[in-house]
Every structure is written in structure tokens, then in C-alpha cells.
Amino acid sequence: MDFLAEFEEKINQVNQSLQKYFMKNENYQMSIYDAMEYSLFSGGKRIRPVLCVACAELFGNAEDAMPFACAIEMIHTYSLIHDDLPCMDDDDLRRGKPTNHIIYGEAMAVLAGDALLNLAFETALQHSKATPAQTLEAVKIIAESAGTEGMIGGQVIDLESEGKDVDAVTLMAMHVHKTGALMMAPAKVGALIGGGTKEDILNMEKFARYLGVAFQIKDDILDVESTTEILGKPIGSDKLNEKTTFVTLYGMEQSRKMLEDYTQNAIATLEEYGDRAAFLKELSLFLLRRDR
Ligand code: GRG
Question: Which ligand 1 atom is the nearest neighbour of the CA of 179?
């Protein structure tokens, strides 16, 4: 199967599983379920759950990784809902659609984000078919990656950098946490649940650390070069918000070179797995070339 067909198939499996795990409570007709559903099924690229499933597949058991893959996508979705709020980035458009708070109001958007975070852990614990020890370890990895030592920590660095000159070390720390942590979690959890060794889990963490930085560099480049129609969100928002990005700090040409280098470094960490890692190598190149 070629890469795009396999990618599509994995996305479909993720979407089906998300549908299965996301149960609306029809008895109560609570509008929070609509708000959660709106963002969970609004056209996300599903990179993180696909990464999780693909890393599990590399070492064996991909099926058991699905509850964790979906949990991570729920956390990712919550982070985007909150990131778009007026008290954060104050964005009206995401994935070509009005943001959650524009449709459901700020209070409901906060609750929908919180509810997705809780549903993530419910899903992982309720649907896990892995051993109790593996389940515990996977949930610990996910919790840490989403928390103050991970994604939220990165967001705090971002908040505290507003209006300041950000140096290269701070910029990297911000993105290794804010974007990288939620890339490393699926890679590590995938390797763990798939049956990889401790060394394999560390290798996958290293791979995803490079991939996460590359992903953010590309995000910064697209914010300058893409269009609102293609990206589904306003372009030029970094400039508008006077944010330091890879492009503002290093310039476009150097950012492109860094994107290429980080992607190649990610691919190099997969070398020992040979052709078994073909999908992950192709995924890295796909993310390098993506236009949204
Ligand atoms: C707790 C109040 C509160 C807020 C949390 C942690 C946080 C807000 C925001 C950080 C999340 C964030 C915006 C990270 C940047 C990572 C990034 C580039 C996200 C976009 O990922 P894609 O392109 O999104 O995979 P799609 O739309 O494809 O799912």
C-alpha cells in the first residue's frame, strides 16, 4: 500500500474509534456534548493519533494503542479550543470554521475543553486492553506531556514571552514543550503499547522531539506563506501578535534549512528499524511538505 492510502486508512480507523469512544448522552441532551463534538470532528489532521498507532505498529501490537491514540487527540482538541479563547490567542477561525467559543460561547468552550481532557483519561482507562502496568505507564506519560512539564508549561513560556525579545534557547524550550510534548507522548506510548523495549521507547521519543520541532518550524513558515483559505485560520497572526517565531528569529531561508535538518534528524533516528519504519519516514516527509 502506498503512503497516502495507508495514512488515509489510519485516519479512518482513528475517526471510527473516536466516534465509538465519544458517546453523547442522548437522555440529557446537554449542549456540552455538541460543543465537544463540534471541535473533535471538525477536520483535524489526526497527526498525533496516527503517529501513536504507527509507532505501535513498528513494534507489533497497533490495535491496543487506539484508546491512547484517541485520548491524545482529545487532549490536543481541548488545547486548541482553549488556545483560541479571547483570554489566550483570541482566534475566530480554525480549520476553516468558527472557533468553539464563537459558536457556543466562552463559558461553554472552557467547559468543552475541560470535558475533553477528562474524557481523554476516561477513554484510555476504560478502553485499554493493555496490561495494567502498561496502561498505568501510558497514562502517566500522557498526563505528564499535557501538564506543566509539557504542553501547558510551553504555553506558560509563550504567555510570559509576550512583548519580550525571545532568544533561541527560550524559543526552542517553548516549542519542545508546547508542540513537542504532544508529539513525543504518542510516539512513546505507541512504542510502549506496541511492545518496544526501553531503548525503542527512548528512540521514538528522540524521533518525535525532532519531528515536533520540525512541525512547529513548518507552522511558523505557513503562517507567513500560506493563505487563510488553505490553512483554515488567519495567516499573519504571529506578526499581528508580535510573536517571536522561527521565521522572525532566523529568517525564512534559515528556517527552511532548519526544517529540512530537523526532519532528516528525525528520519535518521529510525535508521535501525529499516523498512519497517517506512511509514514513519514518509510521515516525516509528508509533514515537511504539508500545506496546512
Ligand atoms: C489550559 C487555559 C488552558 C489553555 C491551554 C496548552 C494550550 C492552551 C495551548 C497549546 C496548544 C497549542 C496551540 C500548541 C501549538 C501546537 C500546534 C501547532 C497545533 C496545531 O496542530 P495541528 O496542525 O492541528 O495538528 P489540527 O487542526 O490538524 O488538529
Answer: 16
Residue from 76, 95, 271, 243 nearest 174 by CA: 243
Extended strands (E) in the chain: 93-94, 97-98
Which residue is closest in CA terms to ligand 1's atom 20?
80
CB atoms within 10 A of CB 147: 12
DSSP 149: T
28 CA to centre of ligand 1 in angstroms:
30
Q: Tell me how far apart the alpha carbons of residues 234 and 227 are, in angstroms, rounded to a whole number.
A: 8
Q: Cα(80) to centroid of ligand 1, in Å?
A: 4
Rg, Å, the chain Cα set: 18
**Segment 240-268 mean pLDDT:** 94
CA 192–ligand 1 middle distance (angstroms): 24
Report residues whose beta carbon is within 6 angstroms of any ligand 1 atom.
44-45, 47, 79-80, 82-83, 88, 95, 151-152, 155, 178-179, 219
Average pLDDT over residues 121-143: 97
For 154-178, write each residue's pLDDT tens digit.
999 999 998 888 999 999 999 999 9
Residue 208 confidence class, pLDDT cut points 50, 70, 90: very high
178-194 burial, b at 16+ Cβ within 10 Å, e below that, comes to: bbbbbbbbbbbbbbbbb
Global pTM reads: 0.96
